[in-house]
Amino acid sequence: MTENKTNNITKPASTIDLKDYAKYLEGLTEQERAAAISILTEYSKNGYSTLMDDLKYADFEEIPVDIDTFLDSDDYLGQGL
After folding, report:
1. Helix (H, G, I), strand (E, B) or coil at 5
2. C-alpha angle with apex 74: 72 to 78, nearest 5 degrees?
3. The domain containing residue 52 runs over which residues?
4. Three-state SS for 78?
5. Are 25 and 33 within 8 A, CB to CB?
6. pTM of the model
7. Are residues 39 and 19 in contact, defined by beta-carbon separation less than 8 angstroms?
8. pLDDT tens, position by position, 7-66
């Protein structure tokens, strides 16, 4: 079971109360707040958020490779080592 600690209280992630995050949401626009609530809801239900992944990688034409691939692959730095 995934747990969340808020105010020194441990509770399952599926019971996270969005009120716990209200202070973090106050400075956001309505659109940003809606996205943040959707992300938190996905995390609490699924343990991951597809919306967060979409936002995280939105600026990339390609998803960056991991460091080992970058250093070892001939497609990247591996040729020069």
Report:
1. strand
2. 40
3. 3-80
4. helix
5. yes
6. 0.54
7. no
8. 444 444 555 566 777 788 888 999 999 999 899 899 989 999 999 999 888 888 888 899
| CB burial string 47-75: b at 16+ within 10 A, e below | eebeebeeeeeeeeeeeeeeeeeeeeeee
Six token digits for residue 7: 């105010």
Q: Give the whole-angstrom CA distance, residue 18 versus residue 67.
A: 36
Return d(Cα 8, Cα 71) in angstroms, integer. 42
Question: Which stretches of 1-81 are assigned E, i.e. beta strand?
Answer: 3-6, 9-12
Number of domains in the chain: 1
Partner residues linked to 11 by β-bridges:
4
Closest by CA to 49, choosing from 35, 31, 66, is 35
67, two tokens = 């460091």
Maximum separation of any 2 CA atoms in the chain, in Å: 52
